[in-house]
Amino acid sequence: MGTRLDVPTAGRAPGVAAPVIHLLEGPLSAAITRDEVAHLARLARLAVTDAELDVFAGQLDVILGSVARVGEVAADDIPPTSHAVPLENVYRPDELRPGLSQEQALSGAPASEDGRFRVPQILGEEA
Amino acid sequence: MSDLTRLTAADLAAKIHSREVSAVEVAQAHLDRIAAVDGGVHAFLHVASDAALASAALVDDSIAAGTAPASPLAGVPLALKDVFTTADMPTTAGSRILEGWRPPYDATVTARLRAAGVTILGKTNMDEFAMGSSTEYSAYGVTRNPWDPSRVPGGSGGGSAAALAAFEAPLAIGTDTGGSIRQPAAFTGTVGVKPTYGGVSRYGLIACASSLDQGGPCARTVLDAALLHEVIGGHDPLDSTSIDSPVPSVVAAARQGADGDLSGLRVGVVRELGGEGYQPGVQASFDAALRQLEKLGAEVVEVSCPHFEYGLAAYYLILPSEVSSNLARFDAMRYGLRVDEGASAEAVMAATREAGFGPEVKRRIILGTYALSSGYYDAYYGQAQKVRTLISRDFAAAFAQADVLVSPATPTTAFPIGDKVDDPLAMYLNDLATIPTNLAGTAAMSVPSGLSDGLPVGLQIMAPALGEAVMYRVAAAYESTREPLVAPEVSA
């Protein structure tokens, strides 16, 4: 496949405001601007329209204002739960079993060529 | 023949297996019913008439040859939510981005239904990628509530629930990430079960939020739901999160419950799930259900789950975070829609996702991208995960005091189409009572508890992880005290 969807995990993305702290003193004063929504949409590979940006910025601001309530809970010493059923290293026997044929795997492809997925150019002309 | 569509799955199976009626006749009766009423309901996105009749004919042949039925539901028709892959039918998850897609493989749930001889009638409408509480976010048009066609059937599994209420199918499959089985069941006067997380395989279930998604049975009676639960449930090596232990004996529990004796059982009323924010008619129906449970011999106690009030907030951080990651797979490269051919890969992706996703999906992807961003991660996603721990602890403490917990399944009855579609936060509030169960990975179901102003109300019964047996027992006992809810006749 082509490029990967990038979610920033190291270093704050440009244009994103500093995080709100003081978690235990009260609700987060969350606010999300139109520019931030545009930036997030670009990170998520969504070519949103100007009209959508206007609508989404307002709606997301309201939603964030509400979900920021999680900050009211004193949970410093509480371990996080990523998954309700704790599991690790689930194995199954390493046995050969039928998989998809090449034809099946390509059956839903928007474009294919010579038995492979045909994808748009990933690297620039100069690369 | 139209009588056949009014029967329960258990009764249909008995008639088919005793050769009183053929599976083909039963399938045809339901296909005729769909042809007659689905124009007015729009529960189905795809009807697989030929495949359904062929599958039913195989069951008839096998019974005629003296072979034992493949399962207690062999020959009984079912409506499958369009989020499970089916190799012989399109699978869209309610999204334009998968329009016309034919998956190259069957989901485990699909495969188990086929192996059990269940007749799959077709695929049902849903909010796009299961994001929504009204089925209005489907890219293929809204499903109407058989009780009042101007109202929503709930969501995301509105198609499956409406198909049951309109007698288009006696059984259906749904998925429940924050209430998508239970809320539509409540809105349509049907039974919907969210099994313990890991109780039903997610292999071939198109992901919304992987740590919350759970497939489950939908039906018009508790026993029918139990019969279906045992067909689809159980360990699957293809889903590493599926639980490697036997399926709880829910059919036996439902039969036991039908005796109507709940003496010795404790039912906990969750203080935080009721009162303010709940319609008076919903609250009244719930209070009446409590008195009925007491009459059946149960001891009703009050329990407190103080962190449930933060459940909605935690859910709408965790879910979009997982959505933003899961839906990255729709990249226009290997399957599904591709637009703007000829541009760079990044431009094709952005244009395809813009064209293929609806507004609610985009909102949640953007919200999730935000919540996972560096600088916000700890305050949002990290904090929500801690709240999730506290909600699980609340459940554990409550289940130490009661065998099952109860609440209204939803704060309101079915709302008018268009009422909340432009107000995401108001839409989210539908899931207030159902979300804690998904966060904790426990089991819960909705059973009809009567009508409020002519619209169905659901009673939610919650049980500990793998505690489905006691939940079905209580549900069946409660159901035995009531007349079934029958929706008014639908016009096409």
UniProtKB/TrEMBL annotation, chain A:
EC number, UniProt record: 6.3.5.-
Q: Name the InterPro entries for this protein.
A: Asp/Glu-ADT_sf_sub_c (IPR036113), GatC (IPR003837)
Tell me which Gene Ontology terms the entry assigns under biological process. Answer: glutaminyl-tRNAGln biosynthesis via transamidation; regulation of translational fidelity; translation
Keywords from the named record = ATP-binding, Ligase, Nucleotide-binding, Protein biosynthesis
**Annotated spans, Disordered:** 97-127
Transmembrane annotation, as ranges: none
User: What is this enzyme's catalytic activity, as reactions?
Assistant: L-glutamyl-tRNA(Gln) + L-glutamine + ATP + H2O = L-glutaminyl-tRNA(Gln) + L-glutamate + ADP + phosphate + H(+); L-aspartyl-tRNA(Asn) + L-glutamine + ATP + H2O = L-asparaginyl-tRNA(Asn) + L-glutamate + ADP + phosphate + 2 H(+)
The cross-references to Pfam families, in alphabetical order and at most eight, read:
GatC (PF02686)
GO terms (molecular function) for this protein are: asparaginyl-tRNA synthase (glutamine-hydrolyzing) activity; ATP binding; glutaminyl-tRNA synthase (glutamine-hydrolyzing) activity
Could you tell me which Gene3D superfamilies the record lists for this protein? Glu-tRNAGln amidotransferase C subunit, N-terminal domain (1.10.20.60)
Per the entry, what this protein does is: Allows the formation of correctly charged Asn-tRNA(Asn) or Gln-tRNA(Gln) through the transamidation of misacylated Asp-tRNA(Asn) or Glu-tRNA(Gln) in organisms which lack either or both of asparaginyl-tRNA or glutaminyl-tRNA synthetases. The reaction takes place in the presence of glutamine and ATP through an activated phospho-Asp-tRNA(Asn) or phospho-Glu-tRNA(Gln).
> Which family, according to the similarity comment?
Belongs to the GatC family.
Q: Which HAMAP family match?
A: GatC
Q: How does it assemble?
A: Heterotrimer of A, B and C subunits.
* Classification via NCBIfam families: gatC
What is the name listed in the Swiss-Prot or TrEMBL entry for this protein?
Aspartyl/glutamyl-tRNA(Asn/Gln) amidotransferase subunit C
The species is: Pseudonocardia hydrocarbonoxydans
* Taxonomic lineage from the root: Bacteria, Bacillati, Actinomycetota, Actinomycetes, Pseudonocardiales
- Supply the gene name: gatC
From TrEMBL, chain B:
Q: How does it assemble?
A: Heterotrimer of A, B and C subunits.
Q: Which HAMAP family match?
A: GatA (MF_00120)
Q: Which UniProt keywords apply?
A: ATP-binding, Ligase, Nucleotide-binding, Protein biosynthesis, Transferase
In the record, what terms sit under GO molecular function?
Answer: ATP binding; glutaminyl-tRNA synthase (glutamine-hydrolyzing) activity; transferase activity
The transmembrane segments are none
Briefly, what is this protein's role? Allows the formation of correctly charged Gln-tRNA(Gln) through the transamidation of misacylated Glu-tRNA(Gln) in organisms which lack glutaminyl-tRNA synthetase. The reaction takes place in the presence of glutamine and ATP through an activated gamma-phospho-Glu-tRNA(Gln).
* Alphabetized InterPro entries for the sequence: Amidase (IPR000120), Amidase_CS (IPR020556), Amidase_dom (IPR023631), AS_sf (IPR036928), GatA (IPR004412)
Record EC number: 6.3.5.7
Per the record, the similarity remark reads: Belongs to the amidase family. GatA subfamily.
- Catalytic center residues: K81 (charge relay system), S156 (charge relay system), S180 (acyl-ester intermediate)
Q: What is this protein called?
A: Glutamyl-tRNA(Gln) amidotransferase subunit A
Give one GO biological process term: translation
Catalyzed chemical reaction(s): L-glutamyl-tRNA(Gln) + L-glutamine + ATP + H2O = L-glutaminyl-tRNA(Gln) + L-glutamate + ADP + phosphate + H(+)
Q: Which GO terms describe its cellular component?
A: glutamyl-tRNA(Gln) amidotransferase complex
